[in-house]
Write the structure tokens for this entry.
Amino acid sequence: MDLGIKDKVALVTASSRGLGRAVAEELAAEGANLVLCARSESSLDETVRAITGSSSVRVISVVADISDPAAVERVWACARDEFGRVDILVNNAGGPRAGPFEAHPPSAWTDAWRLTFESAVNMTRSVLPGMKQRLWGRIINITSIAVKQPVDGLILSNSVRAAVTGFARTLANEVATYGVTVNNVMPGYTLTDRIAHLAESNATRRGTTVAAEIAAMESQIPMRRLGTPKEFAAMVAFLASERATYTTGASIPVDGGWIRSLL
Ligand code: NAD
């Protein structure tokens, strides 16, 4: 299937590793030029080298902490200077800190809000006027299955991702007549560094092994395995595509069947 996004410009935040990087690779394989950002210059450079080595798209990268509004503005300015526009925005970020309610001081709530919610809102504010003007745009937020079924021990993530979902669902209605779609993709357990670290810290805390912790995650999933970043990225690429013209305001799981709800 030709996704019809050759030469479009895609901005993928938090894209040096994990799901963000996999999405960037998938969009590059479809011919989209890329703007990447993350906090670490060395891992961003490695990602840019890998993508430019395997495709002919143009890629720029910006070192930025997207929880800082000034850094978001800088990412947008670099995208505008290099390409003049952004057609596809994928809002991603590192996950908020884990732990139960009483483990988090007030500042942890502010940090989670800035990282997950404000970064998506600020990035959207930058790119949306151009998308509306050109009557074409795709905004995709990477959220979590926690939006449908809160995950124990992740109270910060469970709370702020609900806000992102409300934002996206409302914005989708506001911009629907401009050819701009707004959707969320909800990863289930997907094998990235984040999940590897989570398994390691659970193993240390519970006195088990990493393999046992991964097996415990897999046992909850009807497919009995973790997802791969590439499987996740395929869904994002479809929603970013010319083919996905009539899907907006949706939250779509890529979770091997983990969520048991009917809708
Ligand atoms: P990851 O830790 O493997 O990668 C995170 C990426 O975000 C890295 O490139 C990192 O440099 C970048 N990053 C982190 N904080 C940043 C910041 N402040 N500014 C700019 N870049 C920043 O994580 P992942 O597994 O790819 O997860 C991506 C998102 O999806 C997270 O929000 C995570 O909570 C969520 N999620 C992941 C899973 C999963 O199973 N992997 C499941 C549900 C939700």
Remarks:
- The longest strand covers residues 180-187.
- The helical segments are 18-29, 41-54, 69-83, 106-134, 155-175, 193-206, 210-219, 229-239.
- The chain has one domain: 9-189+227-254.
